[in-house]
Amino acid sequence: MKTVITSSGENNSAQFDKRFGRAAWFCVFDEETKESIFVKNTNTNANNGAGTKAAERIVDMNVQKVISGDFGPKAKDLLDKFNVQMVIVQDNDVTVQEIIEKLKA
Amino acid sequence: MSRPKTLRKVVAPPNFKGYRPYGTNVEPTDSIELLYEEYEAIKLADYDLMNHLEASKLMGISRPTFARIYETARRKIAKAFVETIEIKTVYGDALLEKHWYVCEECQTRFTIPKTIEEHECPLCKSERIELLNT
Lengths: 105, 134
Fold this sequence. Notes:
The complex is a heterodimer.
Chain A: E1 2-7, E2 25-30, E3 35-40, H1 50-60, E4 65-68, H2 73-81, E5 85-88, H3 96-104
Parallel strand pairs in A: 1-4, 4-5
Antiparallel strand pairs in A: 1-2, 2-3
Chain B: E1 8-10, E2 18-19, E3 31-35, H1 36-47, H2 52-59, H3 63-82, E4 86-90, E5 94-96, E6 100-103, E7 109-111, E8 129-132
Parallel strand pairs in B: 1-5, 3-4
Antiparallel strand pairs in B: 2-4, 6-7, 6-8
Helix pairs in contact in B: 1-2, 1-3, 2-3
């Protein structure tokens, strides 16, 4: 099962990004192999539709769970339609590594 | 082209795929499709004992539309009883209310899509989760 964590940087020690559509990076964590791959978000500066594009990308990557700070209404609808679990973490100072540790536990 | 239908809000879809008669000699051949919104109409009017106006507001449709859905629902069930045919529940023009949960241990908010069976917090695996009704 794959999980996407929105990240502000390209490595595990980076800060978790609370934005969804405009997050800098997406960390794709695979629960079977325990490996994480970082994918750059190309829509960080988009004027509109960033959430929708990010959600489409996540559906394409065959991810079942997304961890972020908040989801826009369009992204919510889309993720809901494709049965992707949405998780909202509201801690400000948390790194991607800390979230992965929780998932592994 | 006819006017598109307003999506009917359904709080919770039925917990079953259908009903089948038993103890009958007639081999059930046909089946009838009960829509989610029709199930919801029966539930609101006859189980929660709401009047049609309250129920229609809850489903985001007008009272006459609610009455029509309720009537087709009753007729379908009556038809199934009399003709001893199977009832199958299908999606219809429903809009499912999204369900958000909150974990009492770590305050994480999350959804549980249909494909996930465990009712637990995705982060701390706690089973102390509560439904958020927003």
